[in-house]
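User: I'm preparing a small set of examples for a lab meeting where we compare how different chains pack in three dimensions. I only have the primary sequence for this one, and I'd like the structure in token form so I can line it up with the others. Please keep the answer compact; I'll paste it straight into my notes.
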Amino acid sequence: MASYRALLIPSPRTPGTEDLLPYTPLSTDPLKPIPTPQVSGMDSSGNPIDNPPSAHDAVLLKSTSSRRSVSSIQSRASVANSIQSRGSGTTSGREVSFVDSESKPVRYGSSRAADSEGLSMSQKEINDEDARLVYINDPDKTNEKFEFRGNSIRTSKYSFLTFLPRNLFEQFRRVAYIYFLVIAILNQIPQLAVFGRGASIVPLAFVLFVTAVKDAYEDWRRHKSDRVENNRLAMVLVNDQFCQKKWKDVRVGEVIKISANGTIPCDMVLLSTSDPTGVAYVQTINLDGESNLKTRYAKQETLLAVPEKDKISGLIKCEKPNRNIYGFQGNMEIDGKRVSLGPSNIILRGCEIKNTTWVIGVAVYAGRETKAMLNNSGAPSKRSRLETRMNREIIILSLFLVALCTIVCIGAGVWLRRHKDELDYIPFFRKANFSEGTRTKYNYYGWGMEIFFTFLMAVIVFQIMIPISLYISMELVRVGQAYFMIRDAQMYDEASDSRFQCRALNINEDLGQIKYVFSDKTGTLTENKMEFQCASIWGVDYSDSKTSSEGEQVGNLAQVLVDGQILRPKMKVKVDPELLQLSKSVKDTTESKRPHDFFLALAACNTIVPLLVETSDPTMKLIDYQGESPDEQALVYAAAAYGFVLIERTSGHIVIDVQGVKQRFNVLGLHEFDSDRKRMSVILGCPDRSVKVFVKGADTTMLSAAKKSLNLDIIRATEAHLHSYSSVGLRTLVVGMRELSVSEFEQWQSSYETASTALIGRAGLLRKVASNVESNLIILGASGIEDKLQQGVPEAIESLRIAGIKVWVLTGDKQETAISIGYSSKLLTGSMTQIVINNNSKESCRKSLEDALVMSKKLMTMSGAMINTEGSSGASASPIALIIDGTSLVYILDTELENQLFQLASRCTVVLCCRVAPLQKAGIVALIKNRTDDMTLAIGDGANDVSMIQMADVGVGITGQEGRQAVMASDFSMGQFRFLVPLLFVHGHWNYQRMSYMLLYNFYRNAVFVLVLFWYVLFTCYTLTTAINEWSSVLYSVIYTSFPTIVVGVLDKDLSRVTLLKYPQLYGAGQREESYNGKLFWVTMMDTLWQSVALVFLPLFAYWQSTIDGSSLGDIWTLVAVIAVNIHLAMDVMRWTWITHASVWGSILATSIAVLIIDAIPILPGYWAIFHLAGTGMFWLCLLGAPVGALIPRFVVKLLVQRYRPDDIQIAREAEKFGSSREFEGTEIEMNPMFDQPRR
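Assistant: Understood. Below is the structure token output for the 1240-residue chain.
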């Protein structure tokens, strides 16, 4: 197995010797020149270097801050994306553009006041009350004023004492549980006791107990994990030596040493590392899910200190604990100096040390105050649409329950009035007590109170109208559905070795009702595996088809000799022969210098870390360029293919092999990529004693920063090449350069020092400093990188469109690239009319939207006229595609123009948003979510998609190349975009159909039983005497009829996978809510009413002249009710399995056995009743006749509907059934028309 180690070749360094590294001793006087160290012409590994650092370099290195700006947060170029070129037919579509005639470059973000805010606050010095003061290696003094939290963590929710009250409190947050608790309490009152006091508590107690056991087990696992975590050992500096100490005992201010592959116990500022240059490599997979190595740096002032020998002391003043894992601001005062601290100087709890022997740091945040623990919260809780709609039906059932209770209490009041003179003597309701010889009142509380008690007793008797078992059944069904989704082999991605993950169990059924899909492009529709394709250098396009990718040629070009070993880049890159020959030219001409500067910029302007990979050949190793950005990796590999091989990177210098000659460049400063500037830059001290700024970024921001005196022909040529690259789907970047004079560098250095030491508003100041130095650039050229479409994306998008799902793509790429990808992915077609909106002001956006609305209305009117003329099957509505950029969205979102954008977008088949920021993505989702009832789904793979994923009703994360932030924030995750088709069309359809039926069936099942009890009450003078045994009433919804519901909810399939994938139109059943709606609910209730009448009165009339008691009738009603509801279920089962058979018929058998057992217990009423009944023929006739009589109307209606008004599902089921017959071969299935009108 290949082993990795960092390709960082440190220079020997010993205290007391001269500085052989690119670090130069600090001068206390910033204006005083620094003596030049004696530097031999050797690189850090002892090999000769053609151009050793000069004295001029030392003069420029007067401050450590200029070398400390390197950070681990990688640039994520939002400017690019790629795909295969589209065919010539893609230009056949009509395009209408609404663009400002004099457009000016602007920032593509929703926050335009960041700079001004940063400037206004950056000059403030934070006081001690607003900062955390950490005294290095002095925890006592650190915690003297404020006792900071210890490092013990607790992820568990409960303790031994708080479990019972807190768990019960959380469970009773469900209103239904409070309802059943009130019922149980009422039944304990003697005047209201209808059931046995124990029996009334059993259902609720059972539900509470099962949930409590589950919660207790989960929390026990958390406690166990916490104990393991808190008792891990760390090396802490105590009395000038490192001793082992438990993590939970670590305090803020203590100095900690972590060895290779060790885990960081708390957030700590890096003081020194085993690497002489102060570099440490960390893996943050436990924090943000990203497996790529990140670099962290120790400050020069603390790098050489040996904690065991040197007394380390100092003061760190930093911001208070917060959740931002990518940000940190602070200052460190040490040895009379104050140096700034940033994100690159702190290592967070949970990170692991890689490729570094040891690191030493000081704890600044511990325990619950660490950034990892502050972020230890799940994604926002989401409720499914069905569950929300179910509450409406539960309210209706509650009103129905109140109506039944009201009828009973009114009837009881009328009966009491009519028989008030007989109440003293009527059995079971005598008002007078003569047992003791004197007449006393007995069991009577007056007419009004008796009516009130009757109402409450009726609520107790009819309580199961609200199904308590429904909540448990829904959870179990969702677990079963999730199991089969996870086990689906067709959603397993071999490339990433990732299965489908179900991270939110409560919205499975929402997958069957999606109307809008919002998708990222890079890494979601494309592979996010970048390949360098072409370049434009100084206005010359090197994108000929005569490229070469032969392994030998590329390998020979890139190989480097270090320490007797041959090093080659791991990846091969296509090269242009002409450009290759030009880059190898040793002539010192202008033509050869341009490619030199271009590829030098590609090799240097990045945060890539070169690692070595062992091979089978001991004399050869491969260079693996590690970085968070695939774009940067592709560019560095391209530079290596053309002879500019990056072989070493430290915090202070980089070594690049330029055509076989190693050259070292001092890294004087690095400004990282941010979404405002959309570019990054590095300031290098070059071997020829010059200082240069190399910049790369988006064309919009780079060209605006170009030098005004630059040849306009070159700019125009570069813009034309950028347009041609984007048109074929390539991701583009522009590369520029600027040479700094000594005074310009000193000015930058001073400004950077001021900005970097500001504790408040630092980001705004640093952005201003970067913008100043990234101006007056010489445009060296542009690059084109290809990002291929994922497998099956065009077919998936086409299927989604056929299913009536609108697909919107939200990307940070430029418009031409996004349009090209739209064509190749079949998102855009030649028949679509494209409406393009690119504006730089609110008024121009308003006018563009108004014009677009008029045009879209005309197009829809024309399409409607064609449909009316040619018939519904002769023409379809003219498809419209809206293409809008992020700049326009800045002026539209959160303003009155939002409504116009919604009206326009709702008329469009496709919406393509380009150059959008992450928050704008969430704003687009909210635009639809807040104005329609349609279900939305967002899918993405990167951290910039998290806000969009959390905003949508359903969030799907792609396990891709950009870490796992999207996966961790999502409800579901998978490996490829194409898996969205089986997820929605198959599992989404099944889950929606199953859950919809289960809800309606549960309402029906419980309502039938309540009505059976109600009809009997009418014959008992409204006294609420129940014929059915109290234990049967309790067990009816918990045991007798619950298991078949769960089995059908997990296993039933109305259609096969093949049919659902073959006919995407079938997905429309969920969008139209065909399986669960108000009409179906009322039809079900009407059917329930009839069935209850048949189940009660057929046995009652059969035994009308007999002498059997109420308990015997109760046993009959219990059995016929269970038989009827199970046969009702069996009539609707569409796919029978042995488990379904066992659950349905086994439920009837289990009920019979339970009735026999209950009647065999002498202390219970109805002792031996069932055994007397079973010996008569009338009993068996009732068992057969009552369910048949109850279900015949349902059977007839179902038969007629399926015969004369079949829906799409029924048509497809018949096609499945007869599909093997020859007469159906080649027959097309005509589905019902799909209507696509936005619902408000």
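A couple of notes for your slides: The longest helix spans residues 980-1017. The CA atoms of residues 348 and 1227 lie 63 Å apart.

User: Perfect, thanks.
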